[in-house]
């Protein structure tokens, strides 16, 4: 895309960290800051990918990962779509194997990292100890003379959330994230399932272009025509912009996490590409 076609897009933030350090709880707390959520009539389902609209109307997309498969999860579900990693470390537990794996993987992927020191409400929380242990793994937070941003939070008590959001926004501003919304959409499958009532459903993060109802597409070795787009609040949309996670209905079969979705000109072209990919 030519530079002139590029428009600012929201950052895609992947939450990583050890099992039970509070990734999902933190995301739930962050969703509480969403000014749009109230209008939507509650949360319909947990899709592990959602977009928060802040008071200033800016947006942040969050991807959750389960601690026990942090490495593979980020690689398969968010590898190239992640802009910023938020590393969640429980202040009582400190650095654990999946924390270290997440640090190493984030560094290898060259992604900027913000450390959220969670569970700061606990009586045995020790944030300083976390900062010292991070240093042993070459993560130098500001208080230790480095440049990595860290913030003390409690997902339970909902403290530190505004500061975390500010740090994410600052990091995102530095990155000048852009995409061209005026082209055929491309996206990445975050997760997919076969739903009893609705058939194959894929949660797709739109990376370029705008995905619209009626668009014909190829995704992995499957093809389809967008029958419906549903956001993380359960609302039916007509279109999804860059950085937006959205459930896509109307797929021939169930794709896999990490598969790429591409809008194509017509259904025969879609079938042709899908069949080629299936090796038919
Ligand atoms: P996995 O997805 O299994 O890796 O876990 P997770 O990192 O998503 O952790 P989850 O949000 O499921 O929280 C694990 C436990 O920690 C739950 O019992 C939470 O209630 C608790 N917890 C999360 N955040 C906090 C916090 O800030 N303070 C306290 N005291 N407990 C918390
Ligand atoms: Na858990
Ligand atoms: Mg979780």
TrEMBL record:
GTP binds at residues 17-24, 64-68, 118-121. It is found in: Cytoplasm. Signal peptide: none annotated. Residues 8-178 form the Tr-type G domain. One of the essential components for the initiation of protein synthesis. Protects formylmethionyl-tRNA from spontaneous hydrolysis and promotes its binding to the 30S ribosomal subunits. Also involved in the hydrolysis of GTP during the formation of the 70S ribosomal complex. Belongs to the TRAFAC class translation factor GTPase superfamily. Classic translation factor GTPase family. IF-2 subfamily. This is Translation initiation factor IF-2. The chain holds residues 436 to 715 of 944 of the full protein.
């Amino acid at each position: 895309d030519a530079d002139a076609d590029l428009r600012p897009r929201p950052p895609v933030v992947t939450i990583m960290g050890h099992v039970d350090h509070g990734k999902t709880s933190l995301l739930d707390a962050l969703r509480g800051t969403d000014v749009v959520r109230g209008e939507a009539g509650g949360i319909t389902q947990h899709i592990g990918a959602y977009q928060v609209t802040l008071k200033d109307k800016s947006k942040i997309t969050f991807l959750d990962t389960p601690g026990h498969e942090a490495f593979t999860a980020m690689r398969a579900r968010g590898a190239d779509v992640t802009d910023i990693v938020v590393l969640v470390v429980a202040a009582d537990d400190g650095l654990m194997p999946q924390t270290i794996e997440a640090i190493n993987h984030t560094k290898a992927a060259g992604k900027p990292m913000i450390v959220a020191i969670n569970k700061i409400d606990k009586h045995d929380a020790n944030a300083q100890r976390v900062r010292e242990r991070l240093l042993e793994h070459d993560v130098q937070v500001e208080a230790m003379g480095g440049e990595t941003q860290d913030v003390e939070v409690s997902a339970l008590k909902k403290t530190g959330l505004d500061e975390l959001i500010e740090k994410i926004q600052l990091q995102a501003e530095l990155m000048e994230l852009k995409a061209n919304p005026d082209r055929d959409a491309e996206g990445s499958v975050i997760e997919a399932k076969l739903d009893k009532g609705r058939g194959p459903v894929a949660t797709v993060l739109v990376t370029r272009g705008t995905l619209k109802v009626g668009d014909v597409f190829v995704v992995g070795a499957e093809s389809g025509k967008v029958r419906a787009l549903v956001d993380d609040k359960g609302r039916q949309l007509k279109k999804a912009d860059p950085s937006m996670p959205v459930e896509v209905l109307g797929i021939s079969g169930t794709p896999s996490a990490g598969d790429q979705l591409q809008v194509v000109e017509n259904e025969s072209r879609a079938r042709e590409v899908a069949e080629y990919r299936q090796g038919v």
